[in-house]
Amino acid sequence: MPRSRDAVLSQVLTVAQMRAAEEDLIAAGTSVDALMRVAGRGAGEWVRRIAGGGSVTVLCGPGNNGGDGWVIAEYLREHGNAVQVVQAREPATDAARNARALYRGAVVSADSVTGGDVFVDCLFGSGLTRALPDEIYDMLCGLAALHRHRIAIDVPSGIESDSGAALNAGLPDWTLTVALGAWKHAHFAMPACAAMGATRLVDIGVAQVPGAARVLERLRLTSPAPDAHKYRRGMLGIVGGEMPGAAMLAATAALRAGAGYVKLAAQSAPAGVPPELVVTSDSAALLADARTSALLVGPGLGRSDGASRLLAAALHAGRPTVVDADALVLLRPAMLSGAPCVLTPHEGEMAALERAFGLWGKGLRRERALALAEVSGAVVVLKGPDTLIAAPGGEVVVAPRASSWLSVAGTGDVLAGTIASRLATNGQALRAAEEGLWLHGEAARLCGPAFTAGELADAVQAAFRAGSV
């Protein structure tokens, strides 16, 4: 057990991992009823915060998620809320039956509910793998529509926990989702995470699970060493190509993400070069410079034969490298040198990489990213509204959903420059990917709505400041 529970509470578990973790607690002497009380009362406190003194309707299913609902309802009743329970089905587990017996409030039929302040979904939780039956689906949606606020307990009913897939169309949106014991993959995967509202976690005492994914952590960046200079802080070389604008966006972000020196090799001088960015036309000299700590190749590279040769030369240099954009389409397994490498594909580029590396291209996003990381030896940042990181050793890091305003041209170049700047600073592919992804998401948050990629690149500095200690 770690000294702090922070590491435990940042883990993301599959359904099988969560069941095993609960079984370990039970084997160690904690009863199912005790776990249910901890989970239900913890979730009940979050419901009470949303409800204030308002009325609450709890929809209980037959299993232990329904049992959690009975505990929540009794907790709310004890604290003075007007609470009523709709029992979708009779309790089917001993713990759920025990929780039902301890509830002292009203039990009503679904068709008698006319409205309320808060609706709580305790139908099925994280174990569901098939669509809700029509009558249960209608009950869920009907009750949700009658309340001002909607709270899902553990995982919203109708959502597959391990994938985030919606098992029914037209499921409700939620004000809050309260995870029990550990985060589940659905809390970070589309389409589920987009409908969950705010998310909170109730600790029930599970231990660290070997091999579990984890949530991207907030940065804790420190100042450079007292004797630091520009090369010791990290010199990043950016290999430009046919479209200078993309490389300039990456360089702008890189200048603000901590590297001590950023140098751009451009085929032609781009417009608006800031004075602190060094530009050269000699890419061979940049690649040969022993002071270069890391490279970025891909933004604006193009897909010509010349671009392919430039990519091969950059990777042959043996420096830690971020491969992005066009370079991902040109990349072939033989080009990789074994040096630390970060690949940053979006879905289309991921498909091209899977073809190039002989991968099947099927399965969950994290499974596909892990397969590519394993065969390539590179850290993979699979971009999208539910971006995740996969490392060759099997580690998976999932990012909380970032601003949807990132869906504008050029933001991927900014991410590549940010990761590359961190790679030049620390030389560690996984660490650089995590730090760069966090800075990118924080910069988007600070920008607010309707920003350009250039504004996002400028905001990396403010994000860096927010992550500094």
3D structure, described in words:
The protein has 469 residues and is α/β, with parallel strands linked by helices. The protein folds into two domains: 6-210, 3-Layer(aba) Sandwich (Rossmann fold); 230-466, UDP-N-acetylmuramoyl-L-alanine:D-glutamate ligase (3-Layer(aba) Sandwich), CATH 3.40.1190.20. It contains 16 helices and 19 strands. The protein has helices at 6-9, 15-27, 32-51, 64-78, 94-102, 134-145, 230-233, 244-255, 283-288, 305-316, 326-330, 347-356, 365-376, 411-426, 429-447, 453-466; strands at residues 11-13, 56-60, 83-87, 106-108, 116-122, 147-153, 176-180, 183-184, 198-202, 213-215, 235-239, 261-265, 278-280, 294-297, 321-323, 341-343, 379-382, 388-390, 396-398. Strands 8-1-10-19-18-17-16-15-14-11-12-13 form a twelve-stranded mixed beta sheet, sandwiched between helices. Strands 4-3-2-5-6-7-9 form a seven-stranded parallel beta sheet, with helices on both faces. The radius of gyration is 25 Å and the shape is elongated.
Backbone structural class:
alpha/beta
Reading off the top of the CATH hierarchy, the class of the largest domain is best stated as Alpha Beta
- The CATH superfamily name of the largest domain is Ribokinase
What is the C-alpha radius of gyration, as a whole number of Å?
25 Å
Instruction: Strand order, main sheet: write it out.
Output: 8-1-10-19-18-17-16-15-14-11-12-13
| Uncertain residue segments | none
In angstroms, what separates the terminal alpha carbons? Answer: 27 Å
**Biggest pleated sheet:** 12 strands, mixed
Helix content: 25-40%
Query: Based on CA inertia axes, which overall geometry fits?
Result: elongated
Number of domains: 2
> What is the oligomer described by this structure?
single chain
Strand content: 15-25%
Query: How many individual helices?
Result: 16
CATH 2nd-level architecture of the largest domain: 3-Layer(aba) Sandwich
